[in-house]
Amino acid sequence: MRSIERFDIRGRFLFGLAAVLLAGCGEAPWNDPYPAGEATSNRVYSSFAERPKHLDPARSYSADEYAFLAQIYEPPLQYHFLLRPYRLVPLTALEVPEPAYFDIDGNPLPQDAPVESIHRSDYLIRIQPGIRYQPHPAFASDDAGHYRYHTLNARDLRGVNQLGDFEQTGTRELTAEDYIHQIKRLAAPWVHSPIAGVMQKHILGFEDYAESLVGSVETDPLQRVARLKASEIAGVERVDPYSYRISVKGKYPQFAYWLAMPFFAPMPWEAEVFYAQPGLRERNIMLDWYPVGTGPFMLGENNPNLRMVLARNPNFRGEPYPSEGMPDDAASGILVDAGRPMPFIEEAVYSLEKESIPRWNKFLQGFYDSSGISSDAFDQAVQIDTGGEPVLTDAMRERGITLLTSVEPSVMYMGFNMLDPVIGGDSERARLLRRAIAIAVDFEEFISIFTNGRGLAAQGPIPPGIFGYREGEAGINPFVYEWIGDRAVRRSLDEARVLMEQAGYPGGRDRETGRALTINYEAIATGPDDRARLNWIRKQFAKLGIELVIRSTDYNRFQEKIRNGTGQVFMWGWNADYPDPENFLFLLYGPNGKVEHQGENASNYANPEFDRLFNAMRFMDDGPERQAAIDRMVEIARIDAPWLWGFNPKAFSLHHQWMYNASPNQMANNTLKYRRVDPELRERLRHDWNPPILWPLWAIGVLVLVIVLPALWLVWRRERSTAL
């Protein structure tokens, strides 16, 4: 019996080996990282590189976190998905609020009232009735209407390790009070909201309210919530269950943009009470981990060391897909779903991918629906055509992959310290020197070499997509470019050399002293890749005979030099918080100077006419008058040249053919609801692109048979002869 049992075991081993080798005949790709049941599901698959630190909308201020938060929370306003320049439209609000103006005595003022006469601006926000929160234990109630989980004790928490361990959930209607409660949280010192300081400058009563809460910092979390519920901010008023009013100091038209940020999303007091209870934070059950919103999605799984899943909110009201777009949108097919209720997908699965190569390979295999393009993969995906435009490689086109590009609302510029006696100041000599350098430093070449062509040479401080930006010939910087044919062409080095001579530096030498002109460049050098970039910058100045001294340091020391104004030339960047020209032009506003005022004007540029126009422009509504003021400000800045305008970075993204309604929008973060996929096409192409490579397994199988079978045969013969 023993020999027969052993033979059966060996037989089963060989049978199992054969089964493994024959498994390649199955339908699903062997390397599919997802469960077989998900093959044709209505899901979007993506990735993330860093775990989100905050999922509390009052604390989060990161694009990586907004990728999740903006799908869950709904502030009153949002950005139109397709229209450019970027435009605010209602989200939970009934309309974009128009401010009403009042003088210091509370008397109403006309819309065209002088800015100095406006004491406050009132924004009345009316929200849509019938909006409901996602299912959540914080809203669960018993038959008597009492909340089930607002008085938890240690016994209640036995066996509870995550939010899903609470058996009951509930919901309720969104009210104006929820938005007011969130504004109170922005002021609460224990929340540590990054915009608390900004709001103190603008919302009436915000600063006083924040100071009144200081004594509650050390109190019990439940008492803090009770304190917020029982107190009021002077400048934030509940009008009725679906309306509230925010009073802003003076006139601040840009306040409406803040109403499109998650900071101003609603927060139900029930959620705060629920999460404030003892024993939950120790289990990682807290608002920073489990958001509570009214948006189209809710966080179904939060495992930031593996994956995060956004699931469709069953209580979502169904927002219609936009029916209006740009002139080319109808032909592109992006408006096919116009009027249909969103969202179109059931889930979005985000897998943790810390390394770019595995992320890229999974995209090529079809396991991620879209992807950015790392520098390592750029040549594999994109090539530059004869016109200088990026196009997909043949390999990408064969797979039906599409490339989307958009100019980001940001600027990377080379700044001059205007306090420096050589390169700065408002003398004609220094101005001509800066203009000569502006011609010589070829940012088109920089974009081509160091950003894989992902950039647009800037003509001024305002990037495309922002009101005030001028297209075409009307928008070029005439001191650096000339319009030839249908494009801007950088002026010749001969013109730059003439400017150098006019400035008193013929051939790069000071005419008065005969010494070579030497300029210091402040750099942040972190690795070997920086050496090539810094060498390139040095060569640009050398075209004019200028000796550029690179002074590399770490980031902290670099910031110190900028704060103290001890540098001469540096590279800096700015990304817009909101799409208004004020958000870029303030970088050149004199009272924002870095050295004197600790502001964001790192060049310490000051021009009286520019500052006067800025003070007027910032309070204007978009229109011809504002455009004229902006045009003049940009002209002044081009004449003075405190910056080499640098470039506006471009975002590149790739999308598989089964992904629909992918349109670049650099201001909107809540774009998941617009996405639609064809799961059947995705599964078929995944199967075609990932055929199993079986020959190594067959080779191993044959090797095993050649080695193992004779040994098994000998053992069997020996055991059989022994038995006989």
Can you walk through the features of this model?
By secondary structure, the protein is α+β, with helices and mostly antiparallel strands. Among the domains are: 73-283, Dipeptide-binding Protein, domain 1, CATH 3.90.76; 410-651, Dipeptide-binding Protein, Domain 3 (Dipeptide-binding Protein, domain 3, Roll). The protein is 32% helix and 18% strand. The strands form 8 sheets. Strands 14, 17, 18, 19, 22, 23, 24 and 25 form an 8-stranded mixed beta sheet that branches. Strands 5-4-6-8-7 form a 5-stranded antiparallel beta sheet, with helices on one face. Strands 1-13-10-9 form a 4-stranded mixed beta sheet, covered by helices on one side. A hairpin with a 2-residue loop joins strand 20 and strand 21. The longest helix has 29 residues, at 695-723.
Class based on secondary structure composition and strand pairing:
alpha+beta
* Strand composition percent: 15-25%
CATH fold label of the domain at 410-651: Dipeptide-binding Protein, domain 3
Q: How would the global form be characterised?
A: globular
CATH architecture of the domain at 410-651: Roll
- The CATH class label of the domain at 410-651 is Alpha Beta
Strand count:
27
- Low-confidence runs of at least 5 consecutive residues: 1-7, 20-26
Query: In CATH, what is the homologous superfamily of the domain at 410-651?
Result: Dipeptide-binding Protein, Domain 3
- Helical run tally: 23
Work out the radius of gyration: 31 Å
Biggest sheet record: 8 strands, mixed
| Average pLDDT level | 91
Distance between the termini: 13 Å
Helix content: 25-40%
